[in-house]
Write a structure and sequence with these properties.
mainly beta; Trypsin Inhibitor V, Chain A; Immunoglobulin-like; four-stranded antiparallel β-sheet; 3 helices; 19 strands; elongated
Amino acid sequence: EASPPSGNDFVAIAAGGYHGLALKADGAIAGWGENDYGEASPPSGNDVVAVAAGEAHSLALKGMLVPDVVGMTQAEAESAIVAAGLVVGNITQAYSDTLPAGNVICQEPVAGGTVNFGSAVNLLISIGPLDVGEPNLPFDAEFMIVNKSRVGRTIFDYDCNVSLKNTSPLNVRVLQFELVTVPNNISVTDSYVNDFEDIGPGETKTSADTCTFRVERSEPINFAQVTWKVTYEIINACSPLQQMSYSMVNFEPQDIGNADITGDGKVDHSDLAVMAEQWLQPPGSPSADIASAPGGEGIVNFLDFAALAENWLVSTNN
């Protein structure tokens, strides 16, 4: 009983009266010591998940064989898993060029191994091939200004972050947003937006990081020329099958809000004319009292003019 077998692949041991047992990583059992009643001679096989030893006897608990469900429909796979004494675990989805939508791409743990009764089997389900004719982007993105400062008469510095809503059935890990093209009146200081959390289906997350750029506001901003590159992973139940994709994204401009007094989609001389008519008076309709939300201050003054100037020539039309 003091002479165990050699090796370094044991995961569990049990001590009897005068014998010992060791469970190997592959599910086989090694026994040693007194063997008057066969207590140190366990049966062959590699489907054991636990061992125990008594005074002159040994016990082994066999595991449940994991069925092979790859290629089955989700319903077939779930039935096979339950029939094997196991339970269905996490179900995630991914694109597949080889399996139709609804079929199992991979499973975890893999088929053929042994696990405890009631263990979970995770499934990765196909949603079919990626349609290359459509934008390869599984979320909606909103570009948001978090800080703005004037550095010249018509020059402003901006810090921005990005809010993402996952519109797909996939679990997405965003690695990076990069501002790659801008019109001539924008110069970029820090083009990267990082530090996103993983985004599950239907969830919305905002970047902890910001990008920084400078805008010359003496001419309109052509938002159709503002383009981002997004790098992301699809997080799967079976980690070897993570997928990497890239997309180019054009953002709609940030909401210019109350500064568009006339509601025509841009801030220009027509909005300034309305403000001039209401200058130093209670606001009319449409209201030029735009400085403080909600409802303004009750009079049109220099605060409102400053708000108009900050959005001058901004347009919601690409």
